[in-house]
Every structure is written in structure tokens, then in C-alpha cells.
Amino acid sequence: MGNGKNAFDQLCINTIRMLAVDAVQKANSGHPGMPMGAASMAYVLWTRFLKHNPANPRWPDRDRFVLSAGHGSMLLYSLLHLTGYDLSLEELKNFRQWDSKTPGHPESFLAPGVETTTGPLGQGFATGVGMAIAECFLAAHFNRPDHAIVDHYTYGIVSDGDLMEGISHEAASLAGHLKLGKLIYLYDDNRISIEGSTDLAFTEDRAGRFNAYGWHVQQLDDGNDLEAIIRAIRTARDEALRPSLIVVRTHIGYGSPNKQDTAAVHGEPLGADEVTLTKENLGWPLEPTFIIPEEALARFRQAFQEGKNREDEWNVRFQAYEKAHPQLAKEWKRAMSGALPAGWDKDIPIFPADAKGMATRVASGTVINAIAPKLATLIGGSADLAPSTKTLIKGTDDFKAGHYGQRNMRFGVREHAMGGILNGMALHGGMIPYGSTFLVFSDYMRPSIRLAAMMGLKVIYVFTHDSIGLGEDGPTHQPIEHLASLRAIPGLTVIRPADANETAEAWRFAIEHYGGPVALALTRQNLPTLDRAKYAPADGLSRGAYIISDTGGKRPEVILIASGSEVHIALEASEKLRQKGTAVRVVNMTSWELFDLQPRDYRNGVLPPDIAARVAIETGVSQGWDRYVGDRGEILGMNRFGASAPYKTLFEKFGFTADHVVGKALGLMGREKPKLSGDE
Ligand SMILES: Cc1ncc(C[n+]2csc(CCOP(=O)(O)OP(=O)(O)O)c2C)c(N)n1
């Protein structure tokens, strides 16, 4: 057939289309249009190019495939089932149902072969960039002449929505700059989104934009021209120095006589009548539903044998590598398994007690550089704030085109893409990625943090300038609601260490933690390095909250609970209270999430339920602290935006002083009416 179409290929492509149509119709919800339009390019990619082994979805050198337009999930589920992943037809029939492996949007590894969770548009785009970065880094780090054990592509299908979202602009710009030649995206240019034609809001020259980013761009005007798609993907693979965008003109809802090219087919079932008309139009039997013609299945299932062959062939190559470079091979295996080398933390310093102390961001920088030599695949950077966030690794250079083995990432002022890219790096495996910016700008990357938490990824965020303590930059830069907002994300562990030694413990925890991302909230300003001969050891941090200073056996009359930079204020207040004869306990609450995980006995030991006089002190919104101080406690928080002034003035003006805390405590105990600076 002209146009690169032959009847057998059409049968295979229609199999994908009709599985999507039937599943969405049965679920009575979902997005049939995108899979119908993009089926041809997906078929070509998955049957002619994608290097994967359905029997081993985690084979490390597989090509990665990202369906960035996650709403088209049935496209991916169909491909996974058809090519032989452990995803049954039953699962496709249970699309979007409770307990199925086929949720509305793909969730990473819920169905084997789903590389990443997608759905929030643009995220997959950036995540794929992260995967490509990971491939480059690991290839540079582990490959040796004649031994390419890391050598794969990252493919994706991206949509209008993906390309509209800001995160994709950021990620595309960085991918072009980094010359990620093994990143290949097929753009499902169907010109329809939810509200209608893209003419409503998206009219720029997309190809021109990507050209300007330094991508290699090809344009295909017929999304069903298989030969053209094959040629384009080949060309993209041959292009070593630029990421590729293949703009493929497709038709949403392809084959539906009344709904093709309309927004109606984007996000709702075709409806029984239109399903019939579509099947008739494409020459598909009306009954039964979920038909998979045997010969089509056989074609897709070739992936099984091909995948096995390719992995076998890789295993042979790996054995040769192992022979030639046993130490590297060991390191590679360990890195890919996520295990840490023995003694990885042995150079973490103990910071001596020091009243002047240091900022926890500075301690963090010291710790990063103490562990980096032992953790060869710890890699990260900042969104253009490294001099402030102290995240540079000494002795290594910038990760850049042609220098992909280096470990300092320069994300540029692109927090959101940084978040998505970190997810891709973690998903790829083999590395421990971290990213940094000011805590206040965590807002700019929140959607990616949320996905990292949903996927349980090992990503570390270094968020510095974590309060009004940053001073003169003023309220735009002073995080107020951010700790609460991050704590609201399930699965994210937020840690706010109180001094240098706790910062070291926080890093130790983060590196050893496999239960989701970790956010470190660190100060710009110096904090005293606490005297651990006087106060409880810093490793109490791993329990989330611990008694840092106590009553010497007496029943506490009041408990002061503080985090991060407010802990030393609480300790100072406790000294003053003791001088007044008060039995006071100070609880250092570095991480709510970790504390909440502790057994009830431990929690009740730290915060005995019958002691109601409690004061929480934190330079953030008080939201949530009531949980720890109870009805009769007090919260000294920041329930307004900050101000521009030297930080000592701000702490004074906003009442974060030992005297104010003492007043609150005494007031609570009913001994004295509180006389508080700033209180009317
Ligand atoms: C960040 C984000 N915003 C909004 C949505 C809701 N949404 C889902 S699909 C879609 C339209 C996307 O159009 P397009 O990407 O062209 O997909 P197609 O119509 O081709 O299926 C929107 C707005 C989303 N999933 N993610």
C-alpha cells in the first residue's frame, strides 16, 4: 500500500486503537482519542525500535519509554499487554477500576513496564530528560573502550498539553544545551486539547521553538505514514549531538466518523453508537469487544524473543566487561541495586561545639563533600544558587555536553524542570540525585516533588534560606507556609536540623532512606553548634523528635518544642525557665514524618499526653502544630509574611526570642501572665 500502510500493519495498529476504545467504553471514562491518533507511531516505535525485554522490565540497559501524555494511558497498557509484559487482558478490561494495575493515568511500575507516573502534563517530558541525563552520566562513568554496558535511548510521546506546560520549556532548553542526543520525543501534534482546537491558545511555531533550543526537529505531515515514521526515528537515532523532536501530524480519535479531530473524543468514551461506527469504518468486528487478532498478537509478541536475545547479548557483553574491569562491574551492580558502599559515611565530620556555630547550609556543603568521594554516583546541583545552597562537589567538574561523567549539575534557573529531571534520574537508577534552591522556591517545583513522593523515589532536596532568618531579601524570599506545605505531601520526609551535627545526621538519613524523597530545610544564618556533652546526641534526629534537654528526672511542667533554627532559642529559654525553678523539657522536632512513624510508647515518652503545657516554636505558619501542642498549648509561629531587615531584628520583632518563649511558657503554666514583647 502507498503511504507506507500495509494491511497487516493496519491490523496491528487497529488492535491498539480498539483496545483503547473498548477499555474506555467499558470503564465509561478515559481518553480514547489520543491512543487512536498516536497508535501508528507507537506501533512503529515499539515494534521496530524500542529495545526492551517484556520478561524483565527492569533490565538496566533497556530503552526508556515515557508516555508524557499520561491521559492516553490505554495506549501504553495496550502496548504492554500486546508485547508480553505481565499485564493481562483482564487488567485492560479493568481499566480505571479499584485495585487494577491499569489506573486512569500510568503509575510507575504498578504495571510492569510503566517507567514513570505521568498525567500532570509536562512532567513526563522533564522526567525523560532526567533519564537521558542519567544514561549519559552512567555511560561516561562506567563504559570503557570496547565495553559499552550503558547504551540506550530515551523515547517519549509528548502532546500539545505537554508542550504548553512551562516545565517542558525549561527541560527542553536544558536538554538542548546539554546536547542529549539519545533523547527522542515523538510529538503527537493533533492540534486538539480539552477546550477545542489548539488555535485557541497555542499557536507559536513549535518546531521553530525546539530548533532554537538546539533540538533536531523533523516534521511529518501524516501520522499514519509508517515508512516516514521509521525514517524519522532512524534519523533521530543517528543524530548524536541534539535531542530530537519528531513532530507528527496526527488526528485525535482517528477512525471515528463523527468525533475524529474534535475535543469530544479527547476525554470521554466514544459512546456505543460511535464505537459501532468507528469499528465499521476501520473494518473491525463489532463483537466481541477486546479482540486481539492472533496474527497481530504474534507480531507484537516478537518483542519477547527479541527482548530476550538483546538482554542475552548484553549479558555476554557484561560478562566481558566484568572480566576486564571487575571493580567497575562490582560498582555498577551496586549502584544499580541502590546499595551503598561499606563505610560510605565514615568521613562525615563531627562538628565541635561552638557558640558562634555555622549555618546548616554550610554544614550541608561540608557533609556533601565528605561523602561524595565515597559515593561516586551522588550527583546533583542547583537551580543557579549553588554559591548560596553550598551544593557543589569539589574535585569534580560540571556535568555538560562532552563531560557527562562530571557530577555538578547546572540546572539553570529552572526549578520545575529540576524537579522533574531529578525524578527521571532516580527512576533510571544507578545514582543518588539531589537538587537545591531556596526553600521559598520549592513552590516552583512542587508538582514534581509530589510525583517523587507518589513514586517513592530516592531524591534529595536541599532547601536553604529556610525562614525569615534569611533577613534582608524580605518577604518574597522568606518561606512562611512552605514547611507546612511540604509536610502536607504524603511520603515526603521533611527534616529541619538544628545545627551542624544534625545536618550531618540528616544527610546520613537521606542517603540511607529508601522510602521516598527527603527535603532538608537549612538555614542561611549561623546557628550555634550545640554542645552535645550538655545536650542529647544529634543522632536522635533519626526518630524525628527527641528530648534534647530535660528536667533531670522531674515531671516536666512545660515542654518546649522547636525545630531547626528555633531549637537554640528554646534551649536558651529553657535555661531561663530553670533559673526560675521551672521543670522544663525541650523537644527538638526535626521531622514530623519521622516522629509520627515512631511507636506510640516512644512518642508518649517524648510528649507525655498528660502534660498540656506545651509551646511550639517555628518560624513558619502554625498550621498543623496544634497536633503536637494540643488544645491547651501555644504555637509561636509566623502567620503573616515576613519583612526586609537584618535577621536578628526580624527574630526580635516577630517574637522569636528566649524571653518571649519564657513568657509564653509561664503564661501557660498559669504562674505569670505573659508579658510579651510585641504583644498588646
Ligand atoms: C498540569 C495539567 N494540567 C491540566 C491537565 C488536565 N488535562 C488533561 S489532558 C488535557 C488536554 C491535553 O491536550 P493534549 O495534550 O493535546 O492531549 P490530547 O487532546 O491530544 O489527548 C488537560 C488540560 C493535566 N492533566 N495536567
Brief description of this entry?
By secondary structure, the chain is of the alpha/beta class. The longest helix is centred in the middle third of the chain and has 31 residues, at 294-324.
Question: Any key phrases for this structure?
Answer:
680 residues, elongated
Structural commentary:
This protein is α/β, with parallel strands linked by helices and 680 residues long. 40% of the residues lie in helices and 14% in strands. It is built from 24 helices and 20 strands. The protein has a six-stranded parallel beta sheet, sandwiched between helices. α16 links the parallel β11 and β12. α1 crosses α3 (73-83) and α19 (567-579) crosses α24 (658-669). The longest helix has 31 residues, at 294-324. It is elongated. The protein starts with 6 loop residues before the first helix and ends in an 11-residue tail after the last helix. The mean pLDDT is 97. The site of thiamine diphosphate has 20 residues, from α2, α6 and β4.
Any chance you could write out the topology, listing elements then pairs?
Layout: H1 7-27, H2 33-49, E1 64-67, H3 73-83, H4 89-93, H5 123-142, E2 154-159, H6 160-164, H7 166-178, E3 183-189, E4 192-193, E5 196-197, H8 206-212, E6 216-220, H9 226-238, E7 244-249, H10 272-281, H11 294-324, H12 326-337, E8 354-359, H13 360-371, E9 378-382, H14 386-389, E10 408-410, H15 415-428, E11 432-438, H16 446-455, E12 460-464, H17 482-487, E13 493-495, H18 500-512, E14 518-521, E15 526-529, E16 545-549, E17 558-562, H19 567-579, E18 584-589, H20 592-596, H21 600-606, E19 614-617, H22 626-629, E20 634-636, H23 647-653, H24 658-669
Parallel strand pairs: 1-2, 2-3, 3-7, 6-7, 9-10, 9-11, 11-12, 12-14, 13-14, 17-18, 17-19, 19-20
Antiparallel strand pairs: 4-5, 8-15, 16-18
Helix pairs in contact: 1-2, 1-3, 1-11, 2-3, 2-9, 5-7, 5-15, 7-15, 11-12, 13-18, 15-16, 19-24
Bound molecules: thiamine diphosphate (TPP).
Thiamine diphosphate is lined by residues 31, 33-34, 69, 71-72, 119-121, 159-161, 165, 188, 190, 192-194, 252, 266.
